[in-house]
Amino acid sequence: MSFYDTDENLQRIGVLLTEKAGAVFRERGVPAEQFGFVLLQPARDGGRPRGAALRPEWRSYPCSLVKVFFLVAAQAALEAGQLTTHEELDRAMRDMILWSSNAATNYIIDLLSGTTGDTLLPEPEMAAWCERREVVNRFFAQLGWPELVGINLNQKLMDDLRYGREKIGLDRSPGGHNALTPLAMARLMHAIFHGPLLTVAGRETVQTLIARDLASPFVKRGVYQVTGYLAGGMPAGTQVWSKAGRTRWLGDERADFRRHDALRAVLPNGAEFILTVFSRGEAITEDDGFLPLLGAIAAKEILAL
Fold first, then answer.
1. What is the CATH number of the domain that holds 120?
2. CB-based contacts of 32-36 (< 8 A; 24+ apart in sequence)
3. Is the pLDDT of residue 1 over 70?
C-alpha cells in the first residue's frame, strides 16, 4: 500500500497529463513508456495525501534529483553530530540546489562518506571505499519507507564518463548508477514539508534551500531550473519549491537523455500540490516547453477544484 490514497479528481488530472505527454512524445518520436509521474495533494489536516500516478515505480537514472536526497542526508548528519557545520559545507549545500552544482554535491558526498575519487586503490582499500560510499543508501534504508525500495544513492554526479575509483565503484555497485523513481521522489518531497523527517528546524533548512522565486532575476537562466521546468508553468503569485535535473549525451546509455523534475507548489488560492515527473528521450531532453506545459495543466486543474 502506498503512502497516499487514490483520488477521483487527481486521477482525472492525471489522465490529462498522460494524454498531453503522450501527444508530445508521439510528435517527437519518443516511446510513451519513457514517461512517469506522481501527483499529490497533501491533506490539510495532516492525514494521508491524495494522489494519482503513472509508472510511479519506474526506476530511472535520476540526474540531479538525487541532490535533494543528499541534502537531507547532510542535514541529518549535522543533526546527529556526524558532520560539523562550516562555511564551505553551508556554501556547498546551497549551491548544490540553487545552481545544481555537481562539484558542490561531490564535496558533500566526500564529507558524508569519507571518500575521495582520486587514483586507483589496491584491495582491500577499494572494497572499504565502496562500502563507505553506501552511507546515504544506509541512511534512507533505515527509514523503512517502502516507496524507496530499489533506489540507489552511492554515486557522484558527473558531466561525462567516470575514471579511476569512480569507474571501479560504479562497476561494483549492486545498484549500478544512482537511481530513483517518481514515487520515491514524491515520498521525499512530501516528507520534507509534512514529516516525519529530520527535526522541525532541519526541515525548515531544507525547505529554504529548495525554494524558488518566480520573480527572481535568475529565472531566465536555465540553471535556476524554472524556465524549461515545471515551475515555469506556474501562475504568477505561486510559491515554488523544486529540484530538477537533465542529462544530455554522457556516453553511457544507462544515463543518457533524461529530464526530470520534482515540484511543490502553493497556488495563489492556497491550494497545494506536489508533482514529480520523470522522462527519457533526446527530443524530450531538448524540449524546454514540455515540463512547463505539464506544470501549467496541473496548476490550472488544481486551482479549479
1. 3.40.710.10
2. 34/279, 34/280, 34/281, 34/284, 35/277, 35/278, 35/279, 35/280, 35/284, 36/60, 36/181, 36/182, 36/277, 36/278, 36/279
3. no
